[in-house]
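Query structure, 71 tokens:
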């Protein structure tokens, strides 16, 4: 759910990188507001129904592959 630079950062928990991001956050309040807005938009794309449909599609594809490999 995190898109690098769009709604957050994926960071290595090493001190230097962590502090670098914290300093950026302190200096970029407008960007943080943008991250919040982007997060809301990203989360709206997800739903239990979509997740269920993806899982069903994956299961059906796996079954189809098994059937094809038997032939």
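Result returned for the query:
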């Amino acid at each position: 759910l995190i898109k690098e630079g769009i709604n957050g950062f994926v960071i290595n928990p090493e001190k230097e990188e962590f502090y670098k991001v914290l300093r950026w956050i302190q200096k970029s309040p407008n960007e943080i507001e943008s991250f919040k807005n982007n997060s809301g938009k990203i989360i709206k794309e997800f739903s239990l129904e979509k997740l269920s449909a993806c899982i069903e599609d994956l299961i059906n594809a796996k079954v189809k592959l098994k059937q094809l490999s038997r032939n």
